[in-house]
Write a structure and sequence with these properties.
- Keywords: Coiled coil.
- The chain is mostly helical and 268 residues long.
- The chain folds into two domains: 88 residues; 108 residues, Topoisomerase I, Chain A, domain 4 (Orthogonal Bundle), CATH 1.10.132.
- It has seven helices and no strands.
- Helix 4 runs parallel beside helix 7 and helix 6 runs antiparallel to helix 7.
- The relative contact order is 0.06.
Length: 268
């Protein structure tokens, strides 16, 4: 409708008469000028009315489109709302069915227990009577576990004490070895201090005997660690092995020092 109206306006605009030109003679009569001007004015008024009608029709068309769009949105929202309400109703009915089954099972159990009182009382009495043996078995197992745990803790404590004692012996052995090596380094010291070297040799022999003793203790400690679980004893076993190897190495070095003293003709 709007395009037809605008086309009509355009055709009317093309047929519009031209206004009176300024080329007319000033001396023409007033009646002739009015007769020529009135058709142009009437045509201009008609064109203005056509434009106003076209604008009103365009506004009415926009309003109708807005109304139809609004009604479409309302209908869509209503459909979604009804769909949501239907889903909630289905969920409610499903929950009601589950609830009915659950309470039905409970009622069925109560009816069975009421219809068989002898069996029900027997089961209850059996649970009460068997409670004490279960408690006794539990406490016995717990006592054995605690006893085994305390035994392992005691073995670990003794092993740790032995390792610390061996470490102290090795440290003192290193200190004595360093002192004795300083006494054996120079030939001039050997010549001037034969007596001192003899005493040092005896001390070295005593240290060698201590090293032998440490090695034997390390071997015994390995046997004790064999009683422990492998995971807990692996750390102590490696430490004991290192200490035994270190004691053996120091013993060999001290034996060489004693041999060196003997080579100088000093009886040890």
């Amino acid at each position: 409708m709007n395009s037809q109206t605008l086309a009509t306006v355009a055709e009317s605009s093309e047929a519009m008469p031209t206004p009176p030109s300024s080329d007319y003679s000033i001396g023409s009569t007033i009646t002739k000028n009015l007769g020529e001007t009135m058709p142009w004015v009437e045509h201009a008024v008609q064109q203005a009315q056509l434009y106003q009608k076209a604008v009103e029709e365009a506004i009415d068309s926009a309003v109708e489109a807005s109304k139809s769009r609004l009604s479409e949105i309302r209908s869509t929202s209503s459909a979604h709302l009804h769909q949501t309400i239907g889903s909630l109703q289905d969920l409610k009915s499903e929950y009601a069915s589950y609830e009915e089954v659950f309470f039905g099972k409970i009622k069925e159990g109560v009816v069975i227990a009421a219809s068989h009182p002898v069996i029900t009382s027997g089961v209850g009495l059996g649970l009460i009577v068997l409670q004490r043996p279960w408690h006794s078995l539990y406490y016995r197992a717990r006592y054995k576990a605690m006893r085994l745990f305390l035994s392992q803790e005691a073995i670990l404590s003794r092993a740790d004490t032995r390792v610390k004692e061996l470490q102290k012996s090795i440290d003192s052995l290193k200190a004595e070895s360093e002192t004795l090596e300083m006494a054996v380094d120079g030939e001039e010291v050997l010549k001037r201090g034969i007596k001192k070297l003899r005493q040092a040799g005896k001390q070295i022999q005593g240290v060698i005997r201590s090293a032998h003793k440490i090695e034997r203790q390390a071997g015994g400690l390995k046997d004790i660690l064999g009683e422990l679980p492998r995971r807990e004893a692996s750390l102590f076993r490696s430490q004991v092995s290192n200490l035994a190897s270190e004691a053996k190495r120091e013993r060999k070095a001290l034996t060489k020092q004693v041999s060196k003293i003997s080579d100088y003709g000093i009886s040890v």
